[in-house]
Amino acid sequence: MSPSAEPLDTTAGPPQVLSAAEEYIVDVRGVRRVFGDRAVLDGVDLRLRQGDFIALLGPSGAGKTTLLRILAGLDAADGGQVLAPKARSVVFQEPRLVPARRVWRNVVLGSRRARHERGRAIAALAEVGLATHADAWPVTLSGGEAQRVALARALATEPGLLLLDEPFAALDALTRIRMHDLVGELVKRHRPAVLLVTHDVDEAILLADRILILSDGSIGVDVTVDIDEPRRRSDPRFQDLRQQLLDKLGVGRAARAAALAEIGS
Amino acid sequence: MTTTELEVSAAGGSVEVAAQPVTRTVVEDLTARGRRSPARAALRTWRGRVLRFAIPVLLVGLWQLASAVGWVDEFTLPPPSKILEAYKELWTAGDLQAALPVSLRRAGIGLFFGVAIGLGLGLFAGLWKLGEEIFDAPLQMLRTIPFIAVVPLFITWFGIGEKPKLILIAAATVFPVYLNTYHGVRGIDKKLVEAGQIFGLRGWRLATQVILPTALPAALTGLRYASGVALLALVLAEQINARAGIGYLLNNANQNQRPDIVIAGILIYALLGIVVDIVMRLVEHFALPWRPRVTIG
């Protein structure tokens, strides 16, 4: 643990603290997280404004999900400062719907007035095209539908910060394309700050305004995505950025050619 | 770094693959295996239905025949016809109508207290670490005692009235309910609990809105098992100097050397077991509408 570690506040405290931090609604400074004797996060800095869409890339085990969990309040940092909006929600890789509750009750999960908020739940479901499934049981949904319900649930609380932890990873390729469009559209409408953790470079470029790469415990790369929307994979700038990011992640063409050559020999 | 480099190494790779020795692949014809005959499928379903019904009927028929032909002594094993007569006798004398409610009441009261205690302890141990630390070890130890073994002790402690019977049934049913509830609560996916926490559920609200509904199937499995155990404990409890109930009928018949009534009584216990199982399946069916594979019967 670093001796300079400041007192930690993952719950963000009263709103006036946020306004004191100017316009940043997420303010992460020098965050450390140690598992055993390995510092997975070692001095991470991250600031987000309202409406920012940031994608976080990095090799497996780089600590992407750990950082997301700290921002969600599900995990505590071992050092550093974390400020995040009190209203935040997460879409995980799995839908994580309560199987014993109908779809609409899942959407308003956690609300003290859940029983009386069917209307609000259905409005949220309509945004993901599932209003007709309000009374279904979660087990009857397909993977893509369940994930859309999870997205509706996350947005129904009007979060200041939306955390997406590889939410498309378990979907089939076609469903994933549709989910990309849906998330892009809904995020524009609701304007939360978004942190998307993903392995998929294309997905990051398609959706995010800024892409960060987390490696060796801190954010090593910070690129602004400057491609007009709608972004197309065929766009040369898209291909360029993709190649750059893959190189940074150690899976660029050169690195792959070298690896193949090693297998061949 | 350049594309030429990549092409060179890729070409090098493909040359090596081509140099591998070619082995001949043996091909098998799978066309015929996929053929399905509707007639054969229909035969299979009907065979199943007929056999399920016919085998028990055949066995009862054999039983009747064995007595009629004289293979078995009618006193040792009375034929089905004699047992039907025994029912008729019990019914006209009013014994059956008197005994059944007494036995069901015993099982019901014992089961009620056993389930209440098992559910309470299971939830306490499942939801709170403290509850687990206090109750789990002693209950796991007590669980290994066969409840049949404590009958003499219960007679010494509680006499031979209704009390030891009810306590025996309650004690026997506590454990299946406790174990299933406790494991049901503990076995809930941590990810689901996290999702609840993200949306602001803590403590009591997390327990009632996420944990308990999700653990309900396990608790009901415990209840179903406990109902079976309650009947088993009932049979045993009614051997303790019962003055009413099915057990009393059985004991009386035994003393009066009426094996037909003894078998009639045993079959009532069996019937109760079936009825309880069906009732519990119905309870599960209606309590867990969200579970896709709950079937009746």
- Provide the domain count of chain A: 1
Largest interface: A-B, 33 and 30 residues
Structural class of chain A: alpha/beta
Give the assembly state of these chains: heterodimer
What level of helicity do the residues of chain B show? over 70%
DSSP summary: helix tally of chain A: 9
What is the C-alpha radius of gyration of chain A, as a whole number of Å? 19 Å
Order of helices and strands of chain A: HEEEHEEHHHEHEHEEHH
Question: What is the helix content of chain A?
Answer: 25-40%
**Molecular shape of chain B:** flat
* CATH architecture descriptor name of chain A: 3-Layer(aba) Sandwich
CATH-scheme architecture of chain B: Orthogonal Bundle
CATH homologous superfamily designation of chain B:
MetI-like
What sort of overall outline of chain A do the alpha carbons produce when their principal axes are compared?
Answer: globular
Low-confidence stretches of chain A: 1-21
Just give the CATH class of chain A: Alpha Beta
Explain what this protein looks like in three dimensions.
The complex is a heterodimer of chains A (265) and B (297). Helix content of chain A is 35%, strand content 23%. Chain A is an alpha/beta fold and 265 residues long. Chain A has one domain (15-252): Rossmann fold, CATH 3.40.50.300. In chain A, the strands form 2 sheets. Chain A has a 6-stranded mixed beta sheet, sandwiched between helices. In chain A, strands 2-1-4 form a 3-stranded antiparallel beta sheet, with helices on one face. The longest helix of chain A is centred in the last third of the chain and has 18 residues, at 173-190. The longest helix of chain B has 35 residues, at 203-237. Chain B has a single domain, classed as MetI-like (MetI-like fold, Orthogonal Bundle). Chain B is mainly α. In chain B, helix 4 packs antiparallel against helix 9 and helix 9 packs antiparallel against helix 11 (259-287). Chain B starts with a helix and ends in a 10-residue tail after the last helix.
